[in-house]
C-alpha cells in the first residue's frame, strides 16, 4: 500500500472504536469507506443502511447496485473511486416492531465530522460527488436544495472547515 492508503487504513482502525455518539450503541459495523484513496473522485452518501451496517461496506444494497451500474456506464468501477458517507454508523428507529433507517441528526453528523474531515484531508480529491441532498447539505452548504441546485458544478478555491472541508472542487 502507498502512503495515502496507509494513512486511510490507520484512520479507519481508529474509527472502529469511535463512541462519539449514540449510533455506536446500535451499530453492527462502522462503515468507514472503500475504494481507491488515491483517486481524484470521492463519492459521498448520507450514511449506511441495513445492508451496509451488516457488511461494513458502503453502498451495497439497492443504492449500491445503482451506483455500480452508473460507474460501469462511465467506464469506472469501485476501484477507480473512493466511496464513503457523511456518518459512519447506521441511523435507525424501531416503529411497530420494525427497524427502519432514519436521517442522521445534526449531533450525529457533527460527531462524525472528525472522520469525514480527515478522510478528505488525506485523500485530497479533485472532485467530490455528493449523492443526495443530505450529503450535499453537509458538504456544500447547509441549505442545499436538490430541486434548485442539482447538477450544478460548484468550485471552491479555499479550504472550508467542519463538514464542508474540500481542498479543491466540489459538486
Strand line-up in the sheet with most strands: 1-3-2-6
Major beta-sheet overview: 4 strands, mixed
- The overall strand count is 8
* Number of separate helices: 7
Instruction: Quote the beta fraction.
Output: 15-25%
Element order, helices and strands? Answer: HHEEHHEEEHEHHEE
Helix content: 25-40%
Oligomer category: single chain
* Mean of residue pLDDT values: 84
User: Strand pairing plus helix content: what structural class?
Assistant: alpha/beta
What characteristic shape results from the CA principal axes?
A: globular
Low-pLDDT stretches are 157-171
How far the N terminus sits from the C terminus, by CA atoms, comes to: 29 Å
Radius of gyration: 15 Å
Describe the secondary structure blueprint for this structure.
Layout lengths: L2 H13 L7 H4 L7 E2 L5 E5 L4 H6 L6 H12 L8 E4 L6 E4 L2 E4 L4 H18 L3 E4 L2 H7 L6 H4 L4 E2 L13 E2 L1
Amino acid at each position: 500500500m502507498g502512503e495515502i492508503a496507509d494513512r486511510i487504513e490507520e484512520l479507519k482502525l481508529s474509527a472502529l472504536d469511535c463512541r462519539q455518539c449514540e449510533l455506536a450503541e446500535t451499530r453492527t459495523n462502522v462503515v468507514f469507506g472503500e475504494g481507491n484513496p488515491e483517486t481524484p473522485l470521492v463519492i459521498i452518501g448520507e450514511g449506511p443502511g441495513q445492508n451496509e451496517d451488516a457488511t461494513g461496506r458502503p453502498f451495497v444494497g439497492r443504492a449500491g447496485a445503482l451506483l455500480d451500474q452508473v460507474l460501469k456506464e462511465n467506464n469506472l468501477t469501485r476501484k477507480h473511486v473512493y466511496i464513503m458517507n457523511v456518518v459512519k454508523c447506521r441511523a435507525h428507529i424501531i416503529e411497530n416492531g420494525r427497524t427502519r433507517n432514519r436521517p442522521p441528526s445534526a449531533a450525529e453528523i457533527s460527531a462524525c465530522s472528525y472522520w469525514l474531515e480527515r478522510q478528505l484531508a488525506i485523500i485530497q480529491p479533485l472532485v467530490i460527488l455528493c449523492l443526495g441532498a443530505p450529503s450535499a447539505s453537509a458538504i456544500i452548504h447547509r441549505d442545499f436544495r436538490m430541486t434548485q441546485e442539482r447538477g450544478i458544478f460548484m468550485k471552491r478555491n479555499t479550504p472550508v472547515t467542519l463538514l464542508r472541508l474540500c481542498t479543491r472542487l466540489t459538486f
